[in-house]
Structure formats: structure tokens, C-alpha cells
């Protein structure tokens, strides 16, 4: 078994109930608790706790160090150690037979000895905003910089023409923090059901705004000229789902019966929306 990593928790106070013949007495005793977590090389990891504490002698309670040890151990044993890795793509279907192919959550790693500066470099150009939305998003994810693999970050440059819009969309795998480099943007996001509260702000050059992971958000250029913003994202591949494109431009199309009931509109409106070309500014 590998040497356990040492993790130190400084707990200033632990409440302990001392038993007396007359009545229970509660004492607050400061202790320092240490524990280690060891992982075996087997497929089912073992979790091993080593707990010790410094005894603080108290004349009234006359408590023993073994009781402190047992209490600290029970408190730490309740901690959950298992977790699932965050997905780095839309889905990763399990297979029972590896002959059908192998795909990892993320990307395979190059031998570190073969890494070069180009693995960590990408040049971002000004985006072409001559389109129906008047905006262009230039992503810089693990697909553009291979060195971002496993690092959990990425960014995007967003260019806006006059009245340009980055339409309502979500990032299923990342929180976004946006800074305005030029221009004035009206930005906002909508909270989850049932409140669906709209939170908005007008941003000027140098202003920063956060869009929480998974929530629908947008940016609209409300200034007199062009605008530029940079969005940092908390995933190497945050993904993007543009609401209108997904609802009315899916392939194959979503049943009009589903959309008419969902949006509470006439079937002709849905048919017209599905016939339109939904531009993807990413």
C-alpha cells in the first residue's frame, strides 16, 4: 500500500458529554485532530483512518485520552470520500466489450517529454460580426489548446457589432466569468425553476460579471459602437447550448406538438420557426 497522505484538521473545540452519578455534564475541550487517507492499488480503494488527539486534562471530568480518540474517530468516519468525476463531454456511454472501442472522459495524454510550447499556445483573432446575430464567439478550449487537458479552465473571446447579441444559451459544464474590454453590454441570467428570476446588469469597460454553471444567460451590445468581452470558464470543455437553436433547429426536428404545447403558441408559428436558419455564432 502507498504511504498515506497526511491531512491535518484543526478543530478548535469538541463537545463531549461526561457521565456523572448526579447529572450529565457537558465540557468543551480543545483538541487537535490528525488523520490520514491511504489508497490501495486494488480496483476497490481502501479508506484507512489514523486518528490521534492531544489530551487536555480536566480535573472535574477526569476524562481519558481514549475517549477523545473514539469521539474524534466517529466524527471523521462520517465523512464521505467517494465521488464521481465531472463529465468533460455531453455523455460517455459505458461498454462491456472494449473491442468496440475505447473513449476516455476528456482526452488521452501525450507523453510529457514530447510536449512543446505549441501545446499550450493559441492565437485569438478578432471575430467577424457580419451575421444575423451581430456577434462572434471564439472559443479557446481543450480543442484549441491541447495543453488545457485536465486543467479545468478555458476561455472565449466575444466580439459584438452595434446591437450585436450573444443569444440566450447555457454552458452545461462550466461557470463563466466575463470581463468587458470595450463597449457597453447588457447582460443577464435566469435562475432555475420555479422562480425563473431574471438578474441583469449593464456592464462598461473593465466591469466583470459571473454566470453560474448551467443557467441560461445572454449578452447584448447596447453601446454606440463595437464591443469586446472575454469569458473565462471553469471547464476545459464547458459546452454551449443555444436555446433557440436547440429548440427549433435540432436535427432531426422536435415534434411540433411538443413545441406548441411547451411554448403555448400556434402550430404555424412553430413550423415557421423550424424553417428558419438558426445561425451558430460559436
From TrEMBL:
The keyword Transport does not apply. SUPFAM superfamilies: RmlC-like cupins. It is found in: Secreted, Extracellular space, Apoplast. It comes from the Eukaryota. Oxalate binds at residues 166, 171, 176. Mn(2+) binds at residues 169, 171, 176, 217. GO terms for molecular function: manganese ion binding. Disulfide bonds join 92-109. Transmembrane segments: none annotated. InterPro entries: Cupin_1, Germin, Germin_Mn-BS, RmlC-like_jellyroll, RmlC_Cupin_sf. Coiled coil: none annotated. It holds the Pfam family Cupin_1. GO terms for cellular component: apoplast. Residues 122-271 form the Cupin type-1 domain. Its main location: secreted. Keywords: Apoplast, Disulfide bond, Glycoprotein, Manganese, Metal-binding, Secreted. Belongs to the germin family. May play a role in plant defense. Probably has no oxalate oxidase activity even if the active site is conserved. This is Germin-like protein.
Amino acid at each position: 500500500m502507498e504511504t498515506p497522505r497526511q491531512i491535518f484538521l484543526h478543530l478548535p473545540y469538541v463537545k463531549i458529554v461526561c457521565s456523572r452519578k448526579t447529572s450529565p455534564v457537558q465540557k468543551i475541550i480543545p483538541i487537535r485532530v490528525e488523520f490520514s487517507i491511504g489508497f490501495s492499488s486494488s480496483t476497490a480503494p481502501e479508506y484507512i483512518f489514523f486518528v490521534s488527539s492531544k489530551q487536555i486534562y480536566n480535573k472535574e471530568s477526569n476524562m481519558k485520552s481514549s475517549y477523545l480518540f473514539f469521539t474524534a474517530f466517529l466524527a471523521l468516519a462520517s465523512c464521505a470520500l467517494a465521488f464521481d468525476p465531472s463529465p468533460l463531454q455531453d455523455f460517455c456511454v459505458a461498454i462491456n466489450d472494449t473491442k468496440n472501442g475505447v473513449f476516455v472522459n476528456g482526452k488521452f495524454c501525450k507523453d510529457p517529454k514530447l510536449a512543446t510550447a505549441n501545446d499550450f499556445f493559441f492565437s485569438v483573432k478578432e471575430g467577424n460580426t457580419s451575421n444575423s446575430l451581430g456577434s462572434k464567439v471564439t472559443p479557446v478550449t481543450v480543442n484549441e489548446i491541447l495543453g488545457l487537458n485536465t486543467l479545468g479552465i478555458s476561455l472565449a473571446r466575444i466580439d459584438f457589432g452595434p446591437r450585436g447579441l450573444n443569444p440566450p444559451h447555457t454552458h452545461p459544464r462550466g461557470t463563466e466569468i466575463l470581463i468587458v474590454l470595450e463597449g457597453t453590454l447588457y447582460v443577464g441570467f435566469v435562475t432555475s425553476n420555479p422562480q425563473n428570476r431574471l438578474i441583469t446588469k449593464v456592464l462598461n469597460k473593465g466591469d466583470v460579471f459571473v454566470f453560474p454553471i448551467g443557467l441560461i444567460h445572454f449578452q447584448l451590445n447596447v453601446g454606440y459602437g463595437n464591443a469586446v468581452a472575454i469569458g473565462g470558464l471553469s471547464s476545459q470543455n464547458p459546452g454551449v447550448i443555444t436555446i433557440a437553436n436547440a429548440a427549433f433547429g435540432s436535427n432531426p426536428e422536435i415534434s411540433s406538438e411538443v413545441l406548441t404545447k411547451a411554448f403555448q403558441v400556434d402550430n404555424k408559428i412553430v413550423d415557421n420557426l423550424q424553417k428558419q436558419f438558426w445561425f451558430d455564432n460559436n
